[in-house]
Each structure stands twice: as C-alpha cells, then as structure tokens.
From TrEMBL, chain A:
Organism name: Chelydra serpentina
Protein name in the entry: SERTA domain-containing protein 2-like
InterPro entries: E2F-SERTA_domain_protein, SERTA_dom
Domain SERTA: 40-87
One CC-aspect GO term: nucleus
One Pfam family, short name: SERTA
UniProtKB/TrEMBL annotation, chain B:
InterPro entries: PP2A_PR55, PP2A_PR55_CS, WD40/YVTN_repeat-like_dom_sf, WD40_repeat_dom_sf, WD40_rpt
Protein known as: Serine/threonine-protein phosphatase 2A 55 kDa regulatory subunit B
GO molecular-function term, one example from the UniProt record: protein phosphatase regulator activity
Coiled-coil regions, chain positions: none
C-alpha cells in the first residue's frame, strides 16, 4: 500500500518493484537518495522505519553488534528529538498513535497479524494529526511512533546488550547491579517490564501480538481450559507458598491474572504459581523415589 | 590518458602471480594485512582463523629485474571457533588484527587476535638436524645396546627448511566485548588490546592479568551512546596512546597521569559542517581506523567518506581532509539499507609519511600525496593486473556524460570492498586485500 502511494507522490518514472519486503525497502531507499522532492518528514519517517527494523532484526540475533546498535539507536534518538522539538512548537499535540507493527511494512503480507487499533487511539490520531494532513495521504497511512515507544525500544536493545555477564579485571570497580545476567523471565515476554507506558512499549517489537491474544483469551471460559486437569490436590484452603523465588508483585502478574478472572482459590495471586510448583515437586519426587 | 607517474613519484606494477586461494569460501576472506618492521615478512589473517606469512625473496644477481617477490613462508591455524557455554555464544575465529613485534633474535614474533583472545606466536626456522645418535638410529628406533661397539658424536647436517609456528602466550578472558585493535608499545614489553568499551594493558610475560586503562562503559547501559572503534600506541612515547570513537572523536591519553585513563589529555574533534548534515551524519562520522604517522607527529583517521590527518598539537580540527568517495554522499540511504555504511575501512601511511592510502568499493583503492595534493584511484583486479603492466588509474563518473574507461556510480560493485591494505615500512611496496585475494604491487624499477 505504502509503495503504491509513494509512486503516486513521485509520479511516473519509478520502476515497478516486486512485492518483496527487501526490494521494496531498497526501492524506498533509492527513492530517498534520488528524489529531491520527497518531503523532509517523509524522508525522516523512512529512515526511522529502517532504523527500527534493523533494531528489531538485531534483537533476534543472539549477540548483536554493539557498535552498529549504538549508532542506530543514536540515529533514532536524534530523529525522536527532532520530532519532539517540532511538536513542542506546534499548537496541537503530535499523534500518540500506535507504534507500527514492523511486519506491516509495505510488501509484507500481514495476514498473520491484524492490526486492531483500539477505538480510543483512532480518535487521538484524527485529532492530533492536523499538522500532518497537509502532507498528503502518505503521512496518514504511516503509523506514527510515539516518544515513549522509541525510548523504550532503544532501552530494551541496550539492556539486552548488557545481558552478558561482565568479566571485569580486578582493578576496576564494577557498579553494583550492573552485571547481573538477565533473568530468563524478563527476556521473553515484555509484559514483565516495569515501564510506565505498557500500551506502547512492547508494541514496537512484535509483542503487539501478545496483547491481541490476551483479549482473545478473555472470551473463553476459564473452566473449559482447565477441566482436564486434576485439581483435587489443590482444593484445600491451605495454599503452599511458591517454591521458586517469589516474583515481585509487578504489573506483569496482574496483567496475566486479568485473563483468568474466575480463579478458584482464595489466594488469587499465588494459585498459578502454586499449581506449577506442586506438579514440578511431584514430578521430582517421583523421579527420586523411582516409582 | 595521463600516466600517473606525474602525480605520484612512482608507478606500481603487479608481480608475476596474484596470491590467492584457488577455491573461494567464506573462510578465505582476508581480514587483516600487516608488514613486519623490516618489510621482509607480510602476514595476513583470514576469516577462518588462519595466518599466512609471506617472505620476500632475496634479490639475486641472476635475475636483477625480478626484485624480491613475496612467497609463502608459513601457514598456521591461529584461532579456532569457540563456544562460550556460559553465555551460549559462538566466538568467531576470524582474525581481527595482526601486529608484529620487532625482531630481537632469529625467530619472529607476532600477535594475532580474534574477538576475544590474543595470542603470541613464535615463527622460527629449522634448517639443520642432528644426525648420528648413539642410542637410536636415523628412523628414531632404539638400537640394541649390545650391538653398539663404538661411540660417535652426533653432527648437525643441513635439512630442508622447515618453518614452524608455535603459540607462546595466550591472553584470554579479559574482554567482554569484541576486540577491535591491538597495539605493541614502543617499550616492547607491553601491548594493549581494545574492545568496544574497554582497553587493557598487558605485559607479554603475564597472561593471567591485565590492567584496564580505559573504561567507557556507563553504569546504565541504556545511557550508552559511544563505543571505542580503534586504538594505537604512540610510536616513540611509551606512555601515550590514542583511541577513536563512534562519534568521530579521538582521545589522546597519557598513562603517567593516572592508572585509569578515562580522562583524556587531548581531545580531537572537528565541528560538524552544517551544510552536510543528514540523518546519517553521525553514522558516517564514526572512525573506523586511527594510525600514528611514523614520525609520531600526526594521526590519521578514516571515517566512512574521508581520511583526515591531525596534528597532535591542534585539537580543534584536522590539518588535512581527503575525500575518498564523496560521490557516495548522495547514496547514503541505500548504503544504510544494505549495511555498507557500517563497513570499516583501514588507512595506512607510507614509510616517509608523505603518501596515505585507503580502500574503497569496486576493488578500488585510493592514494593521496600529502605534498603535491595529488590523488589517484587504482583497481585491484585480475583483469588489470597483467604482470609487468602498469596499473591504470581509474575514475568514477558522478553524473552527466560518462567518458570511456570511466565507471558510473551506479555500476560500482559494493560487494567488492577493499578494507585492508598495508605499506612496506621503507619501500614502495603495497599489499591490498580484495576479499579473498591478496595483491602485492611494487614500484617500477628505474
């Protein structure tokens, strides 16, 4: 879609590209290089999208290149700063829209992920985008990235780069808490981050999918999911405290629990943890006893 | 077509053979090139962790026109791929840098490094072997003592030359991030290794300890905005070194000032040209290589589009700036998209510090004469490198009509990049690494 509109903007002469992501990006970047008529804001948005795509690709690699990640993160920050300054000069607020799902870039078949925008943000988008509407159809179709999204995207990249356990030589002091290896739970689901803007933070790097799926789960009856699990052991008032290190009461746990509104036990916080722990303990006991 | 001998005081011609592997695999890509201090030896490291050392032929009276050519002297596997089980990371065996030590006895010593480990290698020759042992025969089998009737003294007899490389020291486990530079100090007792965030000082004799002399890692990694890209010791002052950053700055540090050189003695930075500002300004300002001149008076830095020469006594701007391939300035978005903008080109001085050289794309490399301000573009390719032929200067046509023999910017092959070059310390001999091929060009005789 975006490429079609871009062609409209640039007029004739732009070669027809295959609907392949990489070729489209190459087409866009060569359009960036060759055309002098592209509006500055569009160029900036293209660069920003490329940066975020690269950062997302790096996140999937086990050991991303630190040098490149820092350079790209700085570019994103620079663009973010520019947009912030522009918005502070504008009378209306810049759109605080939903971050682009990276897979919805032009050319990619996004049938796997559908972008459901909650109705509230649509309102925001139409109200706040007055400054952009003059540019043409492209800006409205390009999804805006909010400041928080970008900051948290950069933060998450750099935090991940620090997950390696630091081997410092004895002469230098290592600041406390600096070099803890990243705990497994925080690596995967971004829901467990303690960022303020939960709505936007995870969106940039594909966990938008997760928000969708939790709403899906709300529709199911909880009892249906668990009806084949033997819960006779757990139907007592005494709740075994969690055997693992208790997770700090975070928004994560509350978020997870929102999807299970009808928990059986009185101690709602501990039940999901208890069940897993007890079954694990059981399993271990069986192995030890050799039964 | 002008002969470029008018621009530069010498002409290069290729040798009889181009040194390369017959089969081109990923592991054969040359990743570093370095002459030793006399220029007699030339070492190359590749992505497969191998080091190949070439030695210059002695000039013979029989063939005076055939000035010393380089032949393979020794090949050895320096680094193997490793797996860090703790972090679940694979450590590449690619040789990032090789640095020679000055020769102090009959053997040669060099440092080679991959991302994590530095090794000291001893390369020595053996051309004699003892013969005539009493207790064992020539095959090495023990002789029956009752059969020995007389005593003899073993003698050394000449044998075919054997060159053996042995690892003498392994300096490991000191770098969390990837090592990008190593530099031997002028005291010949210490050297430094630099990764993205830290620089360590080593003594050659001690492998289980190193001093951390620079640490730019912030307490909170989210605040990280700058990394170390290259570092080098001053050629004469063993207390001075420089390191460059991804923000286009160079810091000169004096180790006498404090144990941890986080505070620089000098800070070299050129103010940004507002007319050239773009989204990619910071990325292209990242310095990929820094080299002291042989005199120790200047430093040269390479960023994506330019080479700059700085006077150590002037921090606010370079004294010379050379455009390597300015025609790429209008292609930065495409080059960013295909990651070419992150390519790390190296730069070298010639022996007298009068000419500097660096690589480009399409197997082109560039030379700049600092005195005459002339420059030339040459190509390292098989087609252009007939033996005894003179290298023809190349030209990139930016726009408009393309003349014959010119190549347009859009036809450049960005997969053929010359990142690594080396210049003989005293003669006009250059080594150019083009992917998996090594080209050695020599000055024309007479």
């Amino acid at each position: 879609m975006l490429v079609a509109r871009l062609r409209f903007m640039l007029g004739r002469g732009l070669k027809r590209k295959l609907s392949d992501y990489e070729e489209n990006m190459a087409g866009l970047s060569s359009a960036f290089d060759s055309s002098r008529n592209l509006p500055y804001s569009l160029k900036r948005q293209l660069v920003l999208n490329m940066c975020l795509t690269k950062l997302q690709t790096y996140k999937m690699v086990v050991e991303p290149n630190l040098h490149r990640s820092v350079l790209i993160a700085n570019t994103v920050r620079q663009i973010q700063e520019e947009m912030r300054q522009e918005s502070s000069q504008q009378p209306v607020n810049v759109c605080n829209g939903i971050a682009p799902n990276p897979l919805s870039y032009p050319g990619i078949d996004s049938s796997g992920i559908s972008l459901h925008l909650p109705s509230g943000s649509n309102q925001q988008e139409s109200n706040g985008c007055n400054s952009w509407s003059a540019e043409g159809p492209i800006e409205n179709s390009l999804l805006m990235v909010s400041d928080d999204d970008m900051s948290s995207a950069i933060s998450s990249i750099l935090k991940d780069l620090d997950f390696m356990e630091d081997i410092s030589p004895p002469t230098s002091l290592v600041p406390a808490g600096d070099d803890e290896p990243k705990s497994p739970e925080s690596t995967c689901l971004k829901l467990e981050d303690d960022r303020q803007d939960l709505k936007g933070a995870e969106c940039v790097f594909g966990s938008f999918e997760i928000s969708n799926s939790t709403s899906y789960l709300k529709d199911l009856a909880i009892d249906d999911i668990f009806e084949d699990i033997d819960t006779s052991m757990y139907d007592s008032d005494f709740c075994v405290p969690p055997l693992m290190t208790p997770r700090p009461p975070s928004s994560a746990t509350e978020e997870t629990l929102k999807t299970f509104p009808s928990c059986n036990s009185s101690s709602a916080n501990n039940i999901p943890i208890c069940r897993t722990d007890l079954s694990e303990l059981d399993h271990i006991m069986e192995i030890l006893v050799g039964s | 077509m002008k002969c470029f001998s008018r621009y530069l005081p010498y002409i290069f011609r290729p040798p009889n053979t181009i040194l390369s592997c017959s089969c081109h695999t990923e592991a054969d890509i040359i990743s570093t090139v370095e002459f030793n201090h006399t220029g007699e030896l030339l070492a190359t490291g590749d992505k497969g962790g191998r080091v190949v050392i070439f030695q210059r032929e002695q000039e013979s009276k029989n063939q005076p026109h055939r000035r010393g050519e380089y032949n393979v002297y020794s090949t050895f596997q320096s680094h193997e791929p490793e797996f860090d089980y703790l972090k679940s990371l694979e450590i590449e065996e690619k040789i990032n840098k090789i640095r020679w030590l000055p020769q102090q006895n009959a053997a040669y010593f060099l440092l080679s490094t991959n991302d994590k480990t530095v090794k000291l290698w001893k390369v020595s020759e053996r051309d004699k072997r003892p013969e005539g042992y009493n207790l064992k025969d020539e095959d090495g089998r023990l002789r029956d003592p009752s059969m020995i009737t007389m005593l003899r003294v073993p003698v050394l007899r000449p044998m075919d030359l054997m060159v053996e490389a042995t690892p003498r020291r392994v300096f490991a486990n000191a770098h969390t991030y990837h090592i990008n530079s190593i530099s031997v100090n002028s005291d010949y007792e210490t050297y430094m290794s630099a990764d993205d965030l830290r620089i360590n000082l080593w003594n050659f004799e001690i492998t289980n300890q190193s001093f951390n002399i620079v640490d730019i890692k912030p307490a909170n990694m989210e605040e990280l905005t700058e990394v170390i890209t290259a570092a080098e010791f001053h050629p004469h002052h063993c207390n001075t070194f420089v390191y460059s950053s991804s923000k286009g700055t160079i810091r000169l540090c004096d180790m006498r000032a404090s144990a941890l050189c986080d505070r620089h003695s000098k800070f070299f930075e050129e103010p940004e040209d507002p007319s050239n500002r773009s989204f990619f300004s910071e990325i292209i300002s990242s310095i990929s290589d820094v080299k002291f001149s042989h005199s120790g008076r200047y430093i040269m830095t390479r960023d994506y589009l330019t080479v700059k020469v700085w006077d150590l006594n002037m921090e606010n701007r370079p004294i010379e700036t050379y455009q390597v391939h300015d025609y790429l300035r209008s292609k930065l978005c495409s080059l960013y998209e295909n990651d070419c903008i992150f390519d790390k080109f190296e730069c070298v001085w010639n022996g007298s510090d009068s000419v500097i050289m660096t690589g480009s794309y399409n197997n082109f490399f560039r030379m700049f004469d600092r005195n005459t301000k002339r420059d030339v573009t040459l190509e390292a390719s098989r087609e252009n490198s007939k033996p005894r032929a003179i290298l023809k200067p190349r030209k990139v046509c930016v726009g408009g009509k393309r003349r014959k023999d010119e190549i347009s910017v859009d036809s450049l092959d960005f997969s053929k990049k010359i990142l690594h070059t080396a210049w003989h310390p005293s003669e006009n001999i250059i080594a150019v690494a083009a992917t998996n091929n090594l080209y050695i060009f020599q000055d024309k005789v007479n």
